[in-house]
Structure formats: structure tokens, C-alpha cells
Design a protein that fits this description.
The protein is α+β, with helices and mostly antiparallel strands and 181 residues long. It has three helices and ten strands. The strands form two sheets. Strands 1, 2, 4, 7, 9 and 10 form a six-stranded antiparallel β-sheet that branches. It has a four-stranded antiparallel β-sheet with strand order 3-8-5-6, with no helix packed on it. The longest helix has 23 residues. It is elongated, with a radius of gyration of 21 Å. It starts with a helix and ends with a helix.
Length: 181
């Protein structure tokens, strides 16, 4: 092996090790699941959608809202309910928090036993403004969202990262082979 090949190999291994360390010890909130939206609809009354997290310790919900011209100053409420419609988390926000458009991040204390549970997300206007506010939703009118969970077990995180990387590697084998050549 010549010196250049050896140097390149060390650079690649150093890059992979650095990414692994950052992923395990610095990144705390990891992507859980999402529902994509296709259009915006006006927030009137109460909007509901069901989410089923794939991990425990869900702690971030992101939704895309649109406040055209930034004129809406209304007060809104977002609730997360369990299967029995008991309020688990409740957060308030106003039209001042919403851009044209913007992702609104709701961060709350982790829901410990969230894996596989049907949770209901409810968005309602408490003191609506006369000006409309819009939310990204799918064809069925359900709220588009992204969920994140708080990673607590480093070994489980490492196993998950390894299996995800392996799956992506196998699905894109031609790309990786051509990249390494």
C-alpha cells in the first residue's frame, strides 16, 4: 500500500469515527416518524390527527403553519391526548410565533411509554384572530407532522444507526461500489 492510500484510509476511518461519536453523544433528539402534507388548509375550530410513535420518549412535535402577511395574532392551543382522551401535554402559542410559512417546534417533557401508542394531536384556536392561519395537511385533512424522540440508551442507538446504515448501503449498493472505486 502506498502512503496516499493509507492516508486516505485513515481519513475515511477518522471521518466515520467522528460521525459515530457525534451521533451517539451529542445528538440527543432523533427522528421518529412523519406524515407528509400536500396542501395548506385554514385552521378553523378544532383539527385532530392520530400519531403512532415508533419509539419511547417522544419529546418534539413539528408542524408547518402559515400566517400570510404575518397579520394573525390569535391565541392557539395544541394538546396531545392518550387513548382515553386524557391530556398528556398541552402547549399554547400565538400567531406571533408563526411565519409565512414556518415549522413550529413544540418541545415538551418526554412521553416515556409512547412506543406504539395511539396519541391524538389536537390544534384549536382559543382566541382566534380575524385573519386566517393555515396548516400543512394531507388529502384526508390530517395534520402533517414530524416526531422526534429523546435517545436514552447508547447501545440501542448504536444498533439502530448500524442497521439503518446497513439497510441504506444494501439499497444503494451500486452507488457505494462506484463511490469506493
Amino acid at each position: 500500500m502506498n502512503k496516499f492510500s493509507l492516508f486516505t484510509l485513515f481519513i475515511i476511518l477518522g471521518f466515520l469515527t467522528t460521525n459515530l461519536v457525534i451521533s451517539l453523544f451529542l445528538v440527543r433528539n432523533r427522528f421518529d416518524s412523519q406524515q407528509r402534507g400536500t396542501n395548506y388548509r385554514q385552521v378553523r375550530g378544532e383539527l385532530k390527527t392520530t400519531v403512532v410513535p415508533r419509539h419511547d420518549f417522544i419529546n418534539i412535535l413539528m408542524i408547518t403553519l402559515k400566517n400570510p402577511g404575518l397579520v394573525n395574532k390569535g391565541e392557539y392551543e395544541l394538546e396531545i391526548l392518550d387513548e382515553n382522551e386524557n391530556v398528556i401535554r398541552k402547549m399554547n402559542f400565538s400567531g406571533f410565533n408563526v411565519g409565512d410559512p414556518s415549522d413550529l417546534k413544540f418541545q415538551f417533557s418526554p412521553i416515556e411509554d409512547s412506543n406504539g401508542r395511539k396519541l391524538m394531536v389536537v390544534l384549536r384556536g382559543k382566541v382566534p384572530s380575524g385573519d386566517p392561519i393555515f396548516i400543512d395537511s394531507n388529502e384526508n385533512g390530517e395534520i402533517a407532522y414530524r416526531l422526534y424522540y429523546r435517545s436514552t440508551n447508547k447501545m440501542a442507538t448504536l444498533t439502530g444507526l448500524t442497521s439503518e446504515w446497513k439497510e441504506k448501503f444494501l439499497n444503494n449498493l451500486i452507488f457505494f461500489i462506484s463511490w469506493f472505486i
